[in-house]
Specification:
It comes from marine sediment metagenome. The protein has 237 residues and is of the alpha+beta class. The protein contains ten helices and ten strands. The protein has two domains: 166 residues, Beta Polymerase, domain 2 (2-Layer Sandwich), CATH 3.30.460; 59 residues, no CATH class. Helix content is 42%, strand content 28%. Strands 1, 2, 3, 4, 5, 6, 7 and 10 form an eight-stranded mixed β-sheet that branches. A two-stranded antiparallel ribbon has the order 8-9. Helix 5 runs antiparallel to helix 7. The mean pLDDT is 88.
């Protein structure tokens, strides 16, 4: 099974659960861009992005066990601004948007060098099958961290994660905020995506131009979302 097949299989699992519980979500970011521009996922994109309103979060959290039972790891720190689902090493991100004054906004963290290390350690401790997650770190190092985490109690792991996350937010990253008119997400249409019917912003091309610029139809392999996203309105040191 190649990466594209893994991605679609994982999405089908998640889509089935979200649809079953009437969760409103839409295809977003690189997955949306690839579908509209290339009629497929972008081959170098490492995940599929879905988005929801932050107010939907209380309906999604109770589904975590059902998602785990479907074979996906659920990784969620509320301060991390999104939910990460991992299956067979492939990731689906569920982005959380806030609605205020006609704007849809969300924030994320951009790592510095220390932040990348701390982020890697946090996820390795947090998820059960960390060895399956794509990482630039040596596999033996991941296995060592997993072994240490496995002998510690849940309470100890939680305490360690809390301390690492505090250091991460203080020294390892900067906060980036993006904003788009809310009508892009309140007015949705349906698109065929690998045989699945999935919601997308109705004014799809206008939205993609807002996020990726006038040349969004031209693939850009060196795109860095924390710097190149045209909807970024504020960043903080």
């Amino acid at each position: 099974m190649d990466e594209e097949e893994k991605a679609i299989e994982t999405l089908r699992k998640i889509k089935k659960i979200l649809d079953k519980h009437n969760i409103e979500y839409w295809l977003d970011e690189g997955a949306l861009l690839g579908t509209v521009r290339d009629k497929k996922l972008i081959e170098w994109d490492k995940d599929i992005d879905l988005s929801v309103w932050y107010t939907t979060l209380p309906k999604i959290i109770p589904l975590f066990n059902e998602i785990r039972n479907a074979g996906c790891e659920v990784c969620f720190f509320e301060d991390k601004k999104h939910i990460k689902l991992i299956d067979k090493g492939y990731e689906i991100d569920i982005n959380l948007y806030h609605l205020k004054n006609g704007k849809a906004t969300r924030t994320w963290y951009e790592h510095n060098k220390l932040g990348r290390v701390l982020d890697y350690i946090m996820w390795t401790i947090y998820i059960r099958n960390a060895e399956s997650r794509k990482s630039n770190a040596p596999l033996f190092l991941t296995k060592i961290l997993v072994s240490i985490s496995n002998v510690l109690s849940d309470r100890s792991n939680k305490k360690i994660l809390g301390l690492i996350f505090k250091l991460y937010k203080k020294k390892g990253c900067r906060l980036v905020q993006m904003s788009v008119p809310s009508h892009f997400f309140t007015d949705l249409s349906t698109l065929d995506f690998y045989g699945m019917k999935i919601k997308v912003p109705k004014k799809t091309e206008e939205y993609l131009e807002l996020r990726y610029g006038k040349n969004w139809r031209i693939p850009k392999r060196d795109y860095i979302y924390t710097k190149d996203d045209c909807s970024i309105v504020k960043d903080q040191k």
